């Protein structure tokens, strides 16, 4: 069968043969056993409902074995034989170009070069899934291939509920992930619902089909590192940045350190992902012995090298040993997947990677105890460095939150706030989000690198022209992004689809998108798929990350994210998504995203202007109402350019009066 024929058949009527478990693939760890005997039967019934009754007797023991062995039913035998990657849009079957673009993005999220655990349909973060099982993938791709512009596909946590009649201006797909009743958002609630096959953790851009590999976070990390050094008034050259995690998102850290121009040490316990990142060029060197690491770092600092070093081991060893050696760390952070601390997001010291995985699956209580013990040591070592002048920031991965729950010394003197700010509180919030700058991204649907080069130039030209008349308050953001886009080709940031990301405000996003649309209309480039990270001005309500610099008491509310996705839906998005749990953990955040296909038409121009303006200014208005100075400036400026925008501006109370 051809690729197109395989897509159109969906779940095959004749079952394929079982597939061998490929040990060379980076697999998800075994999930802990959490279902009762009756619940295991329910999980099997839930999985078998995708198949005709004639197949149940054959599949039942196989699915039972998967549930017992891995803690989940992935339906490995249904994994397609064709290569998984973002093909040019013309190669997908279908009646609707928008639906073909979504198929392209789904396959990019599952590309072996992009996905963290591709056979388990997990893109990044240890549990950020596109689908729960392979039947869902096959059925979704079939629905998309059959979809017309008068239908919308409803996606319930990876399950394609079906195609519903709608209209041409409606989103083609509406995605929800993990949207459970608030009282059932504890980690074990997710474990149970996911094992039953009724809910999933979509992370941010995994379950919304908008992940573009590590590049997506390289840019944000580069800006964070640059501004971190600016904050301590030191040049990155000759500076040391220490962190941990080399997974889907965190793998971007060493590359960002190189672009910023410092020495980066990033610890990782998983040998497979460490060597993958090294082979992809995201890391310069891998060192497995702490005795070799210390002199190598000292040499790099003495010579003002720009180098990234992966330490294959536990990061606590690095912090403790650098303290003993009195090796000064300028910037410190952590980007392990601590939103998922008990299922592979963070590993205890004193155990090998294999021993940890065994303990996690077979003695979860002991594993939790060892993780919390390690978190306490981790925090103690960081505190010793910060007393010597290290600037440490929480990278929004729930490090301080989980460390506090473990009893670590991370609270400020008031015993309410953390002693270290998150990077959003200190850097991204006041410097970027409040002014409307966030991670705007695009993908060339043609798959042609020449199209990407052309879009890079278009975006750069737009930004350079805008900078001539931009206010002083945003000159630094403009300059950083012009520098970034000029070095994008040289830094070889593409993994998977031909994609790019930069930080832009509403004006920049609209002007860049319109320039793309005009180029498509002239036949200069193929279709473009617009999107963004959910980690943005307006898409995410996350009290310990995206909205951590909201101080009016509303940071635990989620009106902004919900308003965002509803507003995007009727203003022209091609698909929208809303998730529980991305980035900092299940029950800790609500986040939304979108995708938009540009086809060169006047209708696309109208949609992009309407939707992108709302998508950013919704968040600025909320930040303005929280009395954030930069956001008040930005929303007033937006009202000057758009007379239909009328925003309630806060009145400031005199502190002396209070």
What is Rg?
A: 24 Å
Q: Output mean pLDDT.
A: 95
Number of helices: 21
Domains (count): 3
Measure the end-to-end span. 74 Å
CATH topology of the largest domain: Urocanase fold
What is the CATH superfamily label of the largest domain?
A: Urocanase superfamily
Estimate the strand proportion. 5-15%
Low-confidence stretches: none
Strand count: 17
Helicity level: 40-55%
Q: Structural class of the secondary structure composition? A: alpha/beta
Name the CATH class of the largest domain.
Alpha Beta
Largest sheet: 9 strands, mixed
From the 3D coordinates, which CATH architecture of the largest domain would you assign? Answer: 3-Layer(aba) Sandwich
Cα shape: globular
For this structure, the quaternary state is single chain
Catalytic activity: 4-imidazolone-5-propanoate = trans-urocanate + H2O
EC number: 4.2.1.49
Keywords: Cytoplasm, Histidine metabolism, Lyase, NAD
Family: Belongs to the urocanase family.
